[in-house]
Amino acid sequence: MIETLLQDLRYGLRMLARNPGFAAVAVVTLALGIGANSTIFSVVNSVLVRSLPFRDADRLVVLWGENPHRGWIRNPLSPAELLEYKQSDLFADMAVFRPMAFNLTGSGVPEQLSGQQVTANLFSLLGVAPQLGRTFLPRKTSPEALVSRY
Q: Which residues sit opposite 103 in a β-bridge?
């Protein structure tokens, strides 16, 4: 069995040595195929197979509103809608996050940074802790505080 395999391997190497152009095309084709397969597997594994790194990730949902008159399909919920959901017993807990731009000033030229504005309970809801320091204090980040701002 192993002798036959070694014989076939030697024969294959001799044939490739006789046709170096074919050998180069075969090696490049195999390399591209293996690379593409590895890339596709990595993407599928990270996006579809592996779960999110949060506690109870299968129970997390994101709520969006709609405003068909303005053509908005994924519209953020208003503070009043958030408060209504928070006061109902539909969800065990709720946290709010939204993208924001922040200005970093100090010594040098000011710089605009992208970030998220979040409620204080986002970390506890996701079951994660900060790597350094503490989480936010719940002073002005409750849905009730959000409604009172408008």
A: 112
Summarised one tens digit per residue, pLDDT across range 105-119 is 888 899 999 998 888
Q: Specify the residue for token string 């008159």.
A: 69
- Of 102, 85, 106, 103, the closest CA to residue 94 belongs to 85
Segment 67-72 shows an average pLDDT of 82
CA dihedral 58, 136, 128, 147 (to 10 degrees): 0
16-60: pLDDT as tens digits? 889 888 888 988 999 999 999 999 999 888 877 777 778 888 888
DSSP string, 100-149: EEEEE-SSSS-EEEEEEEE-TTHHHHHT---SSS----SSS-SHHHHHHH
What is the rounded CA–CA span in Å between residue 25 and residue 22? 5
Instruction: Decide if 65 contacts 77 (C-beta within 8 A).
Output: yes
